[in-house]
Amino acid sequence: MNASPPPLPEHTVAAYAQEQASVQRMILEACWAHAQRDTIFEHPGTFRDDQAHRIRRAYLIHLGALYDVFALRGSHDSEVHEAVRELGTNLLAHDGFHLPTTRRSGVDYLRTNYAALHGRADVLPQQAAGLTPVYNPASERADLPPYYPTETRLVGTMLSTYTVARECRRRGDFLQTAAQVRAHHIARGLLLGRVAALAPADRAAEQAAARAGHLVRESDGRPRTSDEKARQYLLETYFDEHPDECEESHEPDCPGGCGGTAVVMATLTWDDQGDGIFVPVWAEPVDCTAGVPQTHDPDCSDCHGHGFTYSRGERHLCGCLAPADLPA
What we know:
Largest sheet: 4 strands, antiparallel
Number of helices: 10
Strand order of the largest sheet: 2-1-5-4
Shape: globular
Oligomer: single chain
Mean pLDDT: 82
Structural class: alpha+beta
Distance between the termini: 47 Å
Low-confidence stretches: 123-140
Strand content: 5-15%
Order of helices and strands: HHHHHHHHHHEEEEEE
């Protein structure tokens, strides 16, 4: 008898535990729903009101469920958690519930309707029996590079390129179709790599990320390589094409304390009140170092390695900081 695969974080929710949809399938569902919703906007007279209602509803459910899985896996992207709440609330409003008075939870309503959409109308949003109700992936989380695009940014790129590629293919613009498909594979592969890192038990997502990397390398005329290098190629290619994001992207729990903004406030000037008492009087935003230890240059002609200069009763932070040389 084959051993069942370990439950994934989202399987602590009954609506997902019974369906056990893979992230790959949920991505396809979200892409399809997004493309259908865009068709409504582009050709509003083509659909009956009931058809448009169902398509918009499917979009809210599929995209909301996808974000919900990321949130349940412990995403550090605050916009992921906000998106789940917003899409659940929008689904309630779309179905005619009066938001100021309803006692329904948008997230629970989203989960229940995702299950119902797949023929599981009896599923309630309670925790699945026998599974841990609270999941903390910190101990299992695979290491990620310090710079990695957020899930919300990747989802947005993935959805838009999927829809544009369909339209380019319809028009017979094969050059633009290939470019959009390539961008879609990059975003989708990075997203799969991200969710696989959040839940290492999801080997299928990890393998799908590698396949996306191999497809992009093949389209770029690169030779076959290992799965790990194929996944790395996706990240390198993404930041080659979006260099500004590499400079800006820090984790929300960045050890440098920037909260994901890549900028921190640093005290630059103190009032020297004597007896070793220094009161901060001036601070400015500076680039976050992502927690990399910094030291002052001992050969600096201003601070001589002490890190501070003094003038007119003030102490100033010297600007000669550089990453420390740490032992291997």
